[in-house]
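Write out the bound-state structure for zinc ion.
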Amino acid sequence: MLSFSRIIGQEKAKRFLKQVMAREKIPHAYLFTGIAGVGKTSMARALAMALNCDLSVNGDSCGNCPACRKMMSGNFPDFISVTRRPDKKNILIDQVKDLNHKLRFAPVAGRYRVCLIQQAEIMTVAAANSFLKTLEEPPPGNILILNAVDPRDLLPTIVSRCQRVSFSPLPFKDIADWLVKERNVDKETAEVLARVSDGSPGRALNMCEGNFLEKRQEWLLSLVNLPGLSKEKAIHMAFEYAEKDKKKDNEKSGSNQTGVPAMLAVWESWYRDLLVVRAGGSAHLLINADFSQKLKKIAEKFIIKRLIDSVLAIDQAQQDLRRYRNKKLVMEHTVLRLKNLADAHGQR
Ligand SMILES: [Zn+2]
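---
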């Protein structure tokens, strides 16, 4: 648990929540939207702590009172987080029913019980409908928070019942500084991680702990070499990536920064950089700034339309994967599409 002040960035969201907390009647439902790792879960925890703090200062928790201490020790009974079970793709109706049952009792320790639905977009339709009833009229003392990347993936009836709080990606400089100061990352690594983190400090941190930087080299190399591959080899490559990812899913990944979604994000950043170079943008705008020479060389060969189409193809793949379409098919289709767009006849 941490206070609002310990969360990096998101000043608008913090201001909004503090204002809301000062009201006589606090709204009971919130929808936090934004990319993964941007601080949605931390903010939900900070809100739970601030709501239950006995000595809050300017709307933030004190960190010292008995309620705060209990929350910081990690076993605060009035913070409930609902997330998919490791072996399931969705949040299921029995999880929502279980939650509804818990809500019927008054908060155990504090004034408010805060219930967080992680990745609300993966609730099954039945689960979402069951949750909708709770959302309409939750028992008093309960605050419901839904986390989602994109509100369009949720039932409109759910969205309309929540106070929307959007979380923005952070400037790369802020993330780099934070990694150096708070996490003792060396400056050079922090810069690369911050640039490729897409504005997500949580992602940057996860990448920092795994072997992400090596994987990134490998992914970029396979992308650059794609035009030289035969169609069969390209399909094989897509298949391999999807298979490896499946294994990792089974091993339980949580915050996997070396899987297919991470690779797609790196590929997308590559095309985005090529667009920047083609548009004559300056080097400090590049995400993969450590590859600026290679980018320059490759960008010369591409027509802009094909770069945009490549970004769109990756975008589509990311959406499909979020909706749990068949990973292998998505990867094959995407790799072939990118290969076609990069092949010699598509270049100038
Ligand atoms: Zn306190």
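---
The chain has two domains: 4-166, 210-346.
Strands lie at 29-33, 79-82, 113-117, 142-148, 163-166.
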